[in-house]
Amino acid sequence: LINTGLLAYNHYPMDQAASNVINATQFIITLFALFEVSVGLFGRGIVNYFSNNYRFFDFLIVISSTVVSLMYPLPCLFTNGSCETASIVGSVIALRSFRCFTIFRVLKLDSTKVILARIARVVKAMQNFLVVLFLFVFLFALIGMQFFANLFRFDAD
Fold first, then answer.
1. How far apart are CA 91 and CA 74, in angstroms?
2. What is the C-alpha to C-alpha distance for residues 26 and 93, in angstroms, rounded to an integer?
3. 128-153 mean pLDDT
4. What is the DSSP string of 112-127?
5. Is 50 within 8 Å of 59 (Cβ atoms)?
6. Buried (b) or exposed (e) across 32-62, using 16+ Cβ within 10 A?
7. 116 HSE (CA, 13 A, CB side)
8. What is the mean pLDDT of residues 129-146?
9. In a 10 Å sphere around its CB, with 0-12 CB exposed, 13-18 middle and 19+ buried, how is residue 126 labelled?
């Protein structure tokens, strides 16, 4: 939950101090997750650990987070991002967003499964309505573009 909150806190523009605190906290969370996966691997054994799809997914998330942490090492956090590797990390750091999916551990609860099954049933029943709604929105967007094309100009002059 802390990690999801940190990922939700990211915004633009963010000062360097806040960015460093978030990156350091995510580094610590990655270390805890790596420890958890290591204990699970050694405690359950490799075959038993990977027999559960959720643990396999968690393993992939932790490995991607570790790769990001290795590419953006902790000393870079406190040098105002002046490390040489920081320039190649920008696109790889997007792998952090996959950590949000670890919040789905809650789905193991039976009550949550019942609620999600009902939501899926309602969404399935709404398919035809959503298609018609999309067509209306698309149609009115095209009509609006035709009626108001080049009528409103916001020049800097």
1. 18
2. 11
3. 85
4. HHHHHHHHHHHHHHTH
5. yes
6. ebeeebeebeeeeeeeebeeeeebeebbebb
7. 9
8. 90
9. exposed
Token pair in block for residue 142: 């095209």
The DSSP string of 79-106 is TTT-STTHHHHTTGGGGGGGGGGGGGGG
Q: What is the DSSP letter of 144?
A: H
Q: In this structure, are residues 80 and 26 in contact, taking their beta carbons and an 8 Å threshold? A: no
User: Distances in Å between the alpha carbon of 36 and those of 14, 32, 152?
Assistant: 31, 6, 57
Q: What is the mean pLDDT of the chain?
A: 76
Does the pTM surpass 0.85? The reply is: no
Residue 30 — pLDDT band, cuts 50, 70, 90?
A: confident
Decide which of 41 and 81 is more confident.
41
